[in-house]
Amino acid sequence: MDASDSREIERKYGVTDSTPLPPLRSLPGVGRVQRPRKFLLEATYFDTSELSLAEQHITLRRRTGGDDAGWHLKLPLSADERRELHEPLGENPEFVPVRFRTLVAVHVRGRAIHPVVLVRTRRTVRQLLGPNEEVLGLFCDDEVDSERLLPTVLGQSWREWELELLDGDSDLLDAADALFAAAGVYRSDSASKLAHAVGTLGARVAAGSPVTPPPKPPRPGSAGELLIAALREYRREWTIQDVRVRTELPDSVHRMRVALARIRNAVGTFHPLLGDGAGSRLRSDLRWMGHTLGAARDADLLAARLADLLRSEAPDLVLGPIAARIALRLGEEADTATSALRDALDSPRYFRLLDDVDALCSGAMLSAMADGRAKDTLPALVDHLIARLRAAARSADQTRDGADRDLALHEVRKKAKKVRYAAELASASRPKRWRRIAKSAEAVQDALGGHHDTVVARQTLLRLSADADQAGESSFSYGRLHAAEERLGDASEAVYDRAVRRIPKSVDTA
């Protein structure tokens, strides 16, 4: 988080012009209330024509006046808490800072961002001070005039209170709730001035955007209800990681890749519950994005893996510029993959994929089969995956040629991952049984994941060794690393041999 960024914890209250000020001095911990300070604030709120940010309770504004003039982006963290980011005003009042555009791209999806509301606020601020003169919170009494800048112009005026925590704790907010309620003042229905100015549904109608009623919710206890709940959680994780990937935070690529893999697996495994709505385009786009994320992550991991392996070698056995060659070759591959990922995240195909997943998570694609009870419907679908996993394991047992066996074990790993993700999704219906299946499949997946890593590392070492030969360098150390990776592969296979025996024959036998 930048030094100019912060976490904002506040509550808003709806009041009338005649509502008297509450006795703020009576709040617990408040030693005194500082004399009021008055400000005139003017804020322009930005969004798409569809109010994509408002729908996500995100506020993007440019404000002048007061102590914190500038661009503000507020991202919701909980009912009372938001992450507030700041950028300078800049010279162009309609040029949204690049950092903010990056952080909202997953919601904006290539659409134009423009002013949607102008808000003028006459603010009276009172600091609530503790016994040691620490600022526990800020009480703001706001008189607001707003002008909606959509095709249908609408002006509104209202008064509201805000109580923002600084050095105080949530007990202060709860005490304020009780104090204000005694005077007939309650929490506002609108989380922000933007929300008050344009209620999302009304603003979309005013902007000429079509508003379709939400689909009928799945029947309680049904397979469809469980599937849609899981899909929405995966989508939520995906959108969180999208921002983290764009800002290059650790482990974000892996976590986003896992979220996409879970959606892709759910679409494939539970396709009978989705009917024809989740078509081949969605599955193709999910696969494309998963591969793009995988390439960006795997190159970095492989470089780190080989560097660690090389450091474990005795210095007198490291012949030639092997560390430099590994860093150069894999660094170039990582840079290429990362550049491809950045391009993909800003591509129309990616934004279309996000829209398709939103439609999937709405529940509109559910088939008649989705109305069946989860505990009756899901076992047969997962049994099919277990049967395929066990068949792949038998095929791998019968394959002894090195390269063919590596491919066969990789197929086992992919099928184990499908079983694991499906069982984890279904675990809400019969937790213990499904979790046993998921854990047994995860053990196979982990063991063969380690094996696959050694296969990729050995293939890379062979390429690097050939490059070294052509350059007239020694390839001795590449051979030692290759042998070390072979031993690691054998160890992973031994773990797999034990884990695969624990895979149940069916859901009922787990």
How would you describe this protein?
This protein has 510 residues and is an alpha+beta fold. The chain is built from 15 helices and 10 strands. An 8-stranded antiparallel β-barrel has the order 1-6-5-4-3-7-8-9. Helix 7 runs antiparallel to helix 9, helix 12 (374-397) packs antiparallel against helix 13 and helix 14 (431-470) packs antiparallel against helix 15. The radius of gyration is 29 Å and the shape is globular. The relative contact order is 0.09. The model is unreliable at 201-208 (pLDDT under 50).
List keywords for this structure.
10 strands, 510 residues, single chain, 15 helices, alpha+beta, eight-stranded antiparallel beta barrel
